[in-house]
Amino acid sequence: MLSDARFETSLPCSDLQRAKSFYAGKLGLTPASEGSAGAFYAGRDGTRFILFPSTGRASGSHSQMGFMVADIDAEVRELKQRGVQFEEYDFPGFDQATGIADVGGTRAAWFKDSEGNLLGLVEQP
Questions:
Q1: How remote is the C-alpha of 103 from its chain's centroid?
Q2: Homologous superfamily of the 2-54+62-123 domain (CATH)
Q3: pLDDT (tens digit, 9 = 90+) per residue, 75-97?
Q4: Proportion of the chain above pLDDT 90, given as a percent
C-alpha cells in the first residue's frame, strides 16, 4: 500500500550547478550523493529530494516541497540573513511584516529557489 511507502520529491532545474550553489549557499544543504540523474539531498527520517537536470520549467505557482520546521520565525530570520527572498501574499492570516502566514494554527512561509521552484517552510501546532 502507498500508505506504507516512503515519500520523496523531485525538483527540476535548468542549471544543476546553479541550483546546487543555491541550496548550499542559501539553505546550507549539500548533496548526500550525486549521479547522472542529479543531486540527492537527505533529510530526517529517510526523507530526501533530488535536483535533476531538466529542460522543463518550474511553474512556481504552487508549493513543490515543504520543509517541516520546529521554529518558523527562527528559520525565516536565518534564511533572510543568507539572502533568501520570501514571497509576499495578500490573504487573511498572512503577516506582511514577517512573511509568515497563519492558517488555522499552521504557520507557513514560501520562497523560490534559483530555478523557480516554490518551496515552503511549515510549522505545525
A1: 19
A2: 2,3-Dihydroxybiphenyl 1,2-Dioxygenase, domain 1 (3.10.180.10)
A3: 999 999 999 999 999 999 999 99
A4: 84
Cα(115)–Cα(86) distance, integer angstroms: 15
With 90 as the cut, is the pLDDT of residue 52 above it? yes
Strands 94-95 and 100-103: antiparallel
Instruction: Count Cβ atoms below 10 Å from residue 105 Cβ, excluding itself.
Output: 8
Maximal C-alpha separation, the chain: 44
Q: Which residues pair with 100 in a beta bridge?
A: 95
Q: Is the pTM of this model over 0.85?
A: yes
Distances (CA, A) of 60 to 31, 66, 86: 23, 13, 13
Q: What one-character-per-residue DSSP string does 66-90 give?
A: EEE-S-HHHHHHHHHHTTPPBP---
Q: Which residue has the cell 509576499?
A: 88
All three cell numbers of 76, joined, read 525565516
Strand-pair partners of 105: none
Cell digits of residue 33: 550523493
Q: What is the pLDDT of residue 7?
A: 81
